[in-house]
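From the methods appendix. Each design record in this collection lists the tokenized structure first, followed by the designed amino acid sequence. Records were kept in a plain field format so they could be parsed without special tools. The example shown here is representative of the layout used throughout.

RECORD:
FOLD TOKENS (60 positions):
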């Protein structure tokens, strides 16, 4: 049986997946997408088109 994962995002707008049955680490928040590992990875590949951290994209 496949585990269920949640897509998480941090303040730098970087994405990752995390097991749904584990507490989300500090500095990350649930993005709203859950599913199999592959479904979550596929979602991230669709929405995270610029992997540059937000702080590097924003002029100082």
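DESIGN:
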């Amino acid at each position: 049986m496949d585990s269920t994962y949640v897509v998480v995002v941090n303040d730098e707008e970087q994405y990752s997946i995390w097991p749904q049955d584990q507490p989300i680490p500090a500095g990350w928040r649930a993005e709203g997408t859950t599913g199999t590992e592959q479904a979550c990875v596929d979602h991230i590949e669709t929405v995270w088109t610029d992997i540059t951290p937000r702080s590097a994209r924003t002029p100082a």
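APPENDIX NOTE: The longest helix spans residues 37-47.
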